[in-house]
Amino acid sequence: MNDDIEYVRRSKNRTHIMKSLDEFPKIPSELAEATVISRQHTSHGLKELSDRDLVVCLNPEEQRGRIYRLTEKGEKVLEEVLKKR
Fold first, then answer.
1. Which residues of the chain have pLDDT under 70?
2. How far is the first Cα of the chain from the last one, in angstroms, to the nearest whole number?
């Protein structure tokens, strides 16, 4: 888990995305708006976080309006990231 904590901490975008998802599940456009990160960077960040099992798509069969939330692992990692600030 320490690798994941450091991975998230190395990127402001990943940290902002995870903090925003901690409030409630969102679609990428909502995340982009809430974090002031471009949609392209938001989508890239979600892919990276998903590959590490820190976020999950709740409706992967959808082409548009995919909803993302933190996984249990993602919640624990975010908690540790925020402690180290």
1. 85
2. 17
pTM: 0.92
- Can you give the CATH number for the domain in which 52 is found? 1.10.10.10
> What is the rounded (10 degree) CA torsion for 32, 37, 38, 41?
-100
Predicted pLDDT of residue 1? 85
* Domain that residue 55 falls in: 2-83
| Domain count within the chain | 1
DSSP string, the chain: -HHHHHHHHT-HHHHHHHHHHHHS-B-HHHHHHHHT--HHHHHHHHHHHHHTTSEEES-TT-SSS--EEE-HHHHHHHHHHHHT-
